[in-house]
Q: What sequence folds into this?
């Protein structure tokens, strides 16, 4: 049925359908304008009535199979944690058991469960996934807003098209009920398309041809091609900007007219343009890549398939995160992401998961490529990739061969999404106004020491040496792994502070903090004073041992292998952390660190393959730490 807005409500529609049932046919009038002919009718109702005859409309027709096919193609948004067999706030571990999500996102109370289940919150799903995956993102460089905002020609064409639709001549006419209404905007056909003449004007006046300048750039050739087109539906250069403008809210269709939408950004406002682009792509990318897609039809309803999908990690989203952290211009090998099949035996289940992962990648990469957020080379399997892999006996890899990378615009969009869900995603050159906690937490993600040093210098330039020392020391408070990570980075910042401290005010801050009783702050300050050869007076005993335990705490939480590698880091003929641990192994328990027993036990496990005698000493110290509590 053609579009039927502005007909006078259900009563006007009923009257129109009665005229159609009676066989009444409206009489068209041929209008000439500028050498062009087109058909017009006496009012919108006659135009819609003519469209009913043109479409062969049958008000009594109903095809259940057709409706079923249409519904089968609708992608449903699944609320996080509501898959069958996985309670809200839990995730299925590789061990096969259910565990609470990290970050305090445990099973909700009964009073909150209904709200949790009923909320469409892909942002919460992303933060949960990142917590489970223990992802740490590197600091990246992002271009300025002006460069990013205009990076996608089709997006900018949609913005110009929205402003063009808002520039139509307005007038006021009386409605069927006698009320006055605004008729500004651009006139549409009953099919919801721009009138042919207006479509040609849009291509020229909104410069839509700029999305494909090689094909449409020549003005004379363009004019000749446009003159031959009789419907906006056949105007390829208009199709993509029109679709984007509608989907992004840059154009709103009201009755038989298209007007500027409420979400249309100012064409000269770089920040507004970038925000509008990010809003359009972030939700689409997140929804596509968070969950493994389940096929439509009978297969999608199988409980066994739901259970299988629950056990597959979000590989495509993790692939996006890996691509996010790559150096500028580097590609990601798509087929290398095979971790999702570990533990799945060869056979139909493995083939099905492989096919679904391939389909998920195809759809996600296609959407990102369309939005100018990604580039890919090779490996495209085309539509129906999952079915093709299944019927063709797909290979063992879940994703097709080829390579993939995010554009600077795509990295910016993903960064915005990550920050929105509370995931640390530092941008090089953006921490000058940040607090010391954020600075210290971000520094480990800098791949280049030069970039990290520049970030610290910019941060120091915005405050005095004394204020910087106070803020850094205050950021070292606490006894948890995240607090220990900040303390690990504090010396590099404090060293830079002391270099600029000509009046000695920063040293005074350190001496005062070192003899305080604030856990973490006093230890960090005393440690820095020892480094510069000015130990604090009356410093508490076992301060160095406390810092050794503290420094090992966050690495111990990452696993035995990570801790062993950290202990063995350093030159073969120079001091290594393992040597410091061996020198003080018998006294580390005396430090009084609240996590001493845990850390010493982890150290014992880590050093056992390389030094069994040291492992026994550490195990004994761990026992003493537990007994001393």
A:
């Amino acid at each position: 049925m053609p579009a039927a807005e502005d007909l006078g409500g259900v009563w006007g529609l009923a009257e129109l359908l009665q005229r159609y049932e009676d066989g009444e046919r409206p009489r068209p009038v041929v209008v000439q304008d500028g050498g062009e002919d087109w058909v017009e009718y006496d009012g919108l109702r006659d135009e819609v009535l003519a469209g009913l005859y043109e479409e062969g409309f049958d008000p009594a027709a109903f095809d259940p199979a057709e409706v079923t096919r249409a519904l089968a193609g609708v992608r449903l948004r699944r609320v996080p944690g509501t898959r069958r067999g996985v309670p809200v706030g839990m995730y299925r571990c590789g061990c096969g058991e259910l565990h609470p999500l990290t970050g305090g996102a445990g099973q909700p109370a009964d009073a909150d469960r209904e709200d949790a289940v009923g909320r469409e919150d892909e942002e919460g799903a992303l933060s949960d996934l990142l917590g489970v995956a223990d992802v740490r993102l590197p600091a990246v460089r992002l271009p300025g807003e002006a460069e990013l905002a205009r990076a996608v020609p089709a997006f900018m064409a949609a913005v110009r098209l929205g402003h063009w639709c808002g520039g139509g001549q307005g007038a006021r006419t009386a409605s069927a009920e006698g009320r006055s209404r605004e008729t500004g905007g651009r006139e549409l056909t009953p099919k919801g398309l721009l009138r042919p003449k207006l479509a040609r004007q849009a291509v020229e006046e909104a410069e839509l041809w700029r999305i494909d300048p090689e094909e449409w750039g020549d003005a004379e050739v363009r004019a000749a091609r446009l003159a031959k087109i009789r419907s906006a539906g056949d105007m390829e250069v208009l199709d993509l900007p029109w679709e984007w403008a509608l989907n992004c809210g840059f154009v709103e269709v009201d009755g038989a007219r298209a007007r500027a939408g409420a979400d249309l950004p100012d064409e000269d406002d770089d920040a507004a343009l970038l925000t509008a682009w990010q809003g359009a792509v972030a939700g689409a990318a997140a929804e596509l890549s968070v969950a493994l897609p389940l096929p439509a039809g009978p297969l999608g309803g199988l409980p066994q398939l739901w259970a299988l999908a629950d056990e597959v990690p979000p590989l495509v989203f993790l692939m996006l995160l890996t691509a996010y952290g790559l150096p500028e211009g580097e590609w990601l090998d798509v087929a290398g992401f095979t971790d999702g099949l570990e533990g799945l035996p060869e056979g139909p289940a493995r083939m099905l998961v492989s096919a679904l992962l391939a389909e998920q990648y195809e759809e996600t990469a296609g959407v990102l490529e369309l939005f100018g957020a990604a580039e890919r080379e090779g490996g495209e399997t085309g539509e129906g990739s999952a079915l093709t892999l299944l019927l063709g006996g797909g290979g063992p890899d879940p994703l097709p061969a080829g390579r993939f990378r995010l554009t600077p615009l795509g990295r910016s969009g993903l960064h915005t999404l990550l920050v929105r869900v509370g995931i640390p995603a530092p941008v090089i050159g953006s921490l000058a106004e940040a607090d010391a906690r954020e600075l210290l937490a971000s520094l480990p993600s800098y791949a280049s020491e030069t970039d990290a040093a520049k970030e610290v210098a910019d941060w120091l330039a915005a405050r005095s040496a004394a204020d910087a020392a106070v803020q850094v020391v205050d950021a070292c408070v606490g006894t948890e792994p995240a607090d220990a990570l900040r303390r690990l980075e504090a010396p590099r910042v404090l060293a830079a502070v002391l270099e600029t401290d000509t009046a000695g005010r920063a040293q005074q801050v350190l001496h005062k903090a070192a003899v305080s009783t604030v856990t973490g702050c006093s230890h960090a300050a005393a440690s820095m004073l020892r480094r510069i050869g000015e130990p604090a007076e009356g410093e508490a005993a076992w301060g160095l041992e406390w810092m050794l335990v503290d420094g090992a705490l966050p690495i111990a939480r990452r696993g035995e292998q990570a801790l062993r590698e950290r202990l063995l880091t350093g030159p073969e003929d120079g001091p290594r952390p393992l040597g410091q641990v061996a020198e003080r192994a018998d006294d580390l328990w005396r430090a009084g660190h609240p996590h001493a027993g845990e850390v010493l036990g982890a150290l014992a496990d880590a050093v056992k393959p390389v030094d069994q005698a040291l492992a026994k000493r550490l195990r004994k110290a761990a026992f003493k730490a537990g007994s001393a509590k």
